[in-house]
Design a protein that fits this description.
Layout (H helix, E strand, L loop, with lengths): L3 E2 L11 E6 L3 E10 L4 E3 L10 E7 L5 E3 L2 H10 L5
Antiparallel strand pairs: 1-3, 2-3, 2-5, 3-4, 5-6
Amino acid sequence: MSKELAFECPKCGYNKVEEVVGVDGTINHCLTAIMEDGSYAYDGDGEIDGDSFLVKFQCYNCGFIIAETEEELVEFLKEQPCNQ
């Protein structure tokens, strides 16, 4: 089973990650859990109708940009002191 990774924003200290998705505009989701294997869970249903694409992951509070891909997100989180 994959381990859940914690997040602490290096800019503001907040602990929630937001996924920004493009789909005929932009949709944002707060992520509730991020796992070492790159899987994650959404706050709410997380359903998007139509074609969509990942724009970025950012701090839910201040907008600090964390990563542009799931792989970059996992690598960033693994390097955080709270996951050591």
